[in-house]
Design a protein that fits this description.
CATH superfamily: Spore Coat Polysaccharide Biosynthesis Protein SpsA, Chain A
Radius of gyration: 17 Å
Number of helices: 11
Strand content: 15-25%
Oligomer: single chain
Number of strands: 9
Order of helices and strands: EHEHEHEEHEEHHEHHEHHH
CATH architecture: Alpha-Beta Complex
Helix content: 25-40%
Length: 261
């Protein structure tokens, strides 16, 4: 093992972007552990794992976001784990910045970075979605605030301000099979709220260290088309606000869906 950190890539079917993701992880300034997990084994995934000498773990059973994430997360043998999405890419200094930041805060339970989108093969510029999320995360720039339950929850109260592939989990604190949400689209938002209620600090670096790909094949696009995102978003806002306020928030929040248009 190179570090006490692992990138656990969740590979699903045959993504054309998987190799780009792998290259961004292999190109880190600090060498780290990389594994790949899948519930849809195929030659494409197997061949890429062999090409880049990445251990491949295969889960039996029907594909499911929560089960797939838990399997990848549990397969990592280090204390710190990043669930890397096959469509996304990482800045070469992601691990370096992460390791430096978790040394600077008290009781870090998760590392969070800023992100920018990849659209049409181009990294950036920021879209309205990432601009709003960046604004909502401002309190996390203060390490003291980032360690209080109030502010950890506050940054999540007006939307899912954290980009899921930009998060590294402290497995030593959170334990095995940490993903317990019943939601499908907002499993990440629900999980971040769960973390916010646990004593400890969101170790946040306000630099775009994660590149989140926006494309028609993305899961986010799929959930918007079949309206499951609206249901999940409404459910999450109701955890923070009275229903009448949720209706007002959702009126504006749905405009962010245009990001995938």
């Amino acid at each position: 093992m190179e570090t006490n950190h692992t990138f656990a890539i969740c590979a699903y079917k045959e993504s054309e972007y998987l190799e780009n993701c792998i290259k961004s992880l292999k190109g880190q300034t600090v060498k780290t552990n990389i594994i790949m997990a899948t519930s849809t084994p195929n030659d494409y995934v197997k061949n890429l794992a062999e090409k880049y000498n990445i251990p491949l773990f295969v889960r039996d059973g029907k594909s499911d976001i929560r089960d797939d994430w838990n399997f990848a997360y549990n397969s990592a043998k280090t204390d710190w784990v990043t669930i890397a999405h096959q469509d996304d890419e990482y800045n070469k200094k992601y691990v370096e910045e992460m390791l430096n930041k978790i040394k600077q805060v008290k009781n870090p339970i998760a590392f969070v970075s800023d992100y920018i989108p990849i659209k049409n093969g181009k990294i950036g510029p920021r879209d309205i979605n990432s601009k709003i999320r960046k604004f909502l995360r401002i309190p996390l720039k203060n390490n003291k605030f980032a360690g209080t339950k109030f502010w950890k929850k506050a940054v999540l109260s007006l939307g899912n301000s954290i980009c899921c592939p930009a998060v590294t989990y402290n497995k030593a604190v959170l334990g095995e099979s940490f993903f317990t949400s019943e939601l499908k689209f907002n499993i990440d938002w629900d999980t971040f709220l769960k973390i916010a209620n646990i004593p400890g600090t969101f170790a946040y670096v306000d630099k775009p260290l994660t590149y989140y790909r926006v494309h028609d094949g993305a899961t986010s696009k799929e959930f918007i088309v079949d309206h499951r995102r609206i249901k999940d978003d409404t459910y999450m806002f109701n955890k923070f606000w009275p229903k009448w306020i949720t209706k007002i928030i959702m009126h504006f929040y749905k405009k962010a869906y245009d990001t995938y248009g």
